[in-house]
Amino acid sequence: MVEIGHFALVLAFALALVQSVVPLVGARTSNSRMMAVAEPVSMAGFGLVLLAFAVLTVSYAQSDFSVANVWENSHSLKPFIYKITGTWGNHEGSMLLWVLILTFFGALVALFGGNLPATLRATVISVQGWIGAAFLLFILATSNPFARLTPAPIEGRDLNPILQDIGLAIHPPLLYLGYVGFSVCFSFAVAALIDGRIDASWARWVRPWTLAAWSFLTGGIAMGSYWAYYELGWGGFWFWDPVENASFMPWLAGTALLHSAIVMEKRSALKIWTLLLAILTFSLSLLGTFLVRSGVLTSVHAFATDPSRGVFILCILTVFIGGSLALFALRAPSLTAGGLFQPISREGALVLNNLFLTTATATVLVGTLYPLVVEALTGDKISVGAPFFNLTFGPLMIPLLVLVPFGPLLAWKRGDVLAAAQRLMTAFAGTLLAVLATMLFIDGATVLAALGIGLATWLVLGALTDLALKAGFGSASPGTMLRRLTGLPLSMFGTALAHLGLGLTTLGLVGVLSFESEHILTMKPGETTEISGYVLRFDEIAPVQGPNFTESRAKFSLLDAAGKPYGEIVSSKRFYPVRQMPTTEAGIKTMGLSQLYVSLGDETADGSLVVRIWWKPLVTLIWGGTLAMMAGGAVSLFDRRLRVGAPARRRREAIEPAAAS
Predict the structure, then answer these.
(1) H helices present in 268-345, as ranges
(2) Are residues 512 and 522 in the same domain?
(3) How many angstroms separate the CA atoms of 98 and 87, rounded?
(4) Which of 21, 111, 396, 609 is the most buried (most CB within 10 A)?
(5) Sign of the C-alpha dihedral, residues 617, 623, 624, 629?
(6) Are 526 and 654 contained in the same domain?
């Protein structure tokens, strides 16, 4: 069975070579039969990679330790769910998941790309084949997940304890769906450059893929943040870790691409810039893959791999990033620039959005790569951490967030800032009220916190204002308003929901960063401590035997100020004997939008236990807002205009020649 999985990968590589050459030659020679090869080959390639992935998954489920990858990352006593998720909790398995998702997107283009011109469709699928062939070769040459051990060991070495969590079932698949989803945008951009032709229909075709990839990447980053938050016992949700940055940069660039594609679709403007963004977004995804797997970074997120794999991926980066940018430099001057517009317009607002987002991306890129460059050139190790990013990234984001509510209220081609500002007066009044309420009733000494709460309120009310105005709120009867609201395109609801989610996430960030309180103390059973109006009582600590770990489990009772029980919090420290690694399992009690977070430290000489306690107000909004952003992307994907726009254009082009004859 294992050999079948290995052979399936070899055959998938052979089909990827066919996919990368035959449809492209057919597109260049107008050979319809060669172009028709693209669809069945891409689907067959996906089927073969799916077969290989299923074989590896079954090997993990059955604890087949004759497979080196299973032996290195599994154990017979590990819970079954973690045996399955352990399939991609390592370099080889995660690369197989990466290629599986890549071939899946290629098959989707073949399946749902019937509305595309035949030559463009064949070229896009061919470019997807180039990427697939490169990474299949990488897996077969350096990262074979089906390598055998003879004789087979009796027991495995277990999975990294930090990865033995349900987060592994959600975070990597979502993240890769975002990372790899942008490959379709990249393929569309390269195909347009090869054809030497790009128009508004191209943007209409690219937008659904961009929306899908952006939504998945948003969810992947958010899930990774929450996983680190509750699993590592550190109480933080973001550390500007280089590998965190590696996923954040494609998200920033993808957000810019999403807005730029709207301008291109609506006004046939920013064509060349949108092409470049499509190339750069996937290039940053490839860069993230290199940083995680090359061994150049030491991070809790990084795979510990040998440098030879990094060299191979670096060669892939050079070919695809360098080749696509060279093609862009060659072809871009011959492309038409697109329509003109006034600086004060919706197009102008979206261009300003792009300037802020791309500058922020460049800032994160410099902060991430600068230590690596310095070490490579001088041998010195330096660290660029949160202070640098807070001082450079933050000032770029604040004006962008202030301007977000204006964008949807400005007219295309020529807008009126004063008219938009008048429409936002109610939102501004609500923002001012939130600032004053924060200063008067919460914390009058922290002006920045009050302004941050105001900024978040501005984003939320601005998003709601856009929908209210389009529904005719205040100028129409309730029945008319409801009809108008239900008649709005889904993309408008998606935009409002995404902007509202951004406001909620901002509110969560400001709340926890400004009003968080922390206690570090030693406690014995029976002792109590106060935090943010609550009393936490240490009840007991007892040993617990898990399936593949031992655990010291502490129970705490949460009481209100009057001594009334409010719930129980369980925290623990685990030890995994096979890996000889400890982990901290934080106890978290959610109360409304806030959380009480309890993490255990080491035992002291007198038998006390070090306990770290955080009160985190509004922290759940950080991830609740990202869920709203994901939902906004999903709602926009169901907009009928994204599905019928391009075919309507093709039907119109077919009707016009018939009428002329």
Answers:
(1) 271-293, 307-317, 323-331
(2) no
(3) 12
(4) 609
(5) positive
(6) no
Q: Which residues of 429-448 are buried (b: 16+ CB within 10 A; e: fewer)?
A: ebbeebbeebbeeeeeeeee
Same domain, 365 and 408: yes
Token couple for 123: 């070229």
Domain count, the chain: 4
CA 9 – CA 13 distance, rounded (Å):
6
CA distance 602 to 589: 22
Taken in order 76, 81, 83, 84, is the CA torsion positive or negative? positive
Which DSSP category does 148 fall into?
B
Please choose, from the candidates 57, 143, 52, 135, the residue with its C-alpha nearest in 3D space to the C-alpha of residue 99: 135
Q: Is 612 inside any structural domain?
A: yes
DSSP secondary structure string, 563-627?
Answer: S-EEEEEEEEEEEETTTTEEEEE-EEEEETTEEEEEEEEEE-TTS-EEEEEEEETTTHHHHHHHH
* SS3 at position 415: coil
pLDDT score, position 269: 80
Q: Give the separation between CA 287 and CA 273, rounded to whole angstroms.
A: 20
For 332-351, b where at least 16 C-beta lie within 10 A, e where not — what string? beebeebbebeebbbbbbbb
pLDDT at 645: 42
* DSSP state for residue 441 in the 8-state scheme: I
Residue 226 sits in the same domain as residue 334: yes
From the list 256, 32, 212, 195, the residue with the least C-alpha distance to 104 is 212
d(CA 610, CA 108): 53
Q: What is the mean pLDDT of residues 39-54?
A: 97
Stretch among 313-322, 334-343, 499-508, 578-587 having the lowest mean pLDDT: 334-343
Whether residues 309 and 276 fall in one domain? yes
CB 568 within 8 A of CB 558: yes
In a domain, 418, yes or no: no
Query: Based on the domain organization, do 245 and 319 belong to the same domain?
Result: yes
| Distance from the first to the final alpha carbon of the chain | 61
Q: Could you tell me if 600 and 467 lie in one domain?
A: no
Q: Find out whether 556 and 571 touch, Cβ atoms under 8 Å.
A: yes
Q: Is the pTM here over 0.85, yes or no?
A: yes
Burial of residue 143 (CB within 10 Å: 0-12, 13-18, 19+) is: buried
Instruction: Answer yes or no: is 188 within a domain.
Output: no
Residue 652 pLDDT more than 60? no
Tokens of 399: 């004006």
Taking alpha carbons only, the member of 453, 446, 389 closest to residue 238 is 389
User: What is the identity of the amino acid at 293?
Assistant: R
Please report the DSSP string for 376-396 in residue order.
HHH-------HHHHHHHHHHH
Q: SS3 for 107-136, per residue?
A: HHHHHHCCCCCHHHHHHHHHHHHHHHHHHH
- 58, with CB counted inside 10 A (0-12, 13-18, 19+), is middle
pLDDT of the residue at 152: 92
Domain that holds residue 634: 424-516+623-661
- pLDDT, residue 294, reads 67
- Is there a domain that residue 417 lies in? no
Contact 178, 273 (CB under 8 A): no
Shared domain for 503 and 523, answered yes or no, is no
Interhelix angle 271-293/242-267, nearest 10 degrees: 160
Q: Which of 382, 412, 442 is the last residue of a domain?
A: 412
- Token pair for residue 425? 């007066």
Q: Cα(558)–Cα(538) distance, rounded to whole angstroms?
A: 9
Of 412, 440, 468, the position where a domain reaches its end is 412
Q: Which two tokens stand for residue 505?
A: 């996430």
Q: What is the Cα–Cα distance from 279 to 190, expressed in whole angstroms?
A: 8
- Closest by Cα among 281, 305, 277 to 291: 305
CA–CA distance, 255 with 182 (Å, rounded to integer): 11
Average pLDDT for 239-254? 91
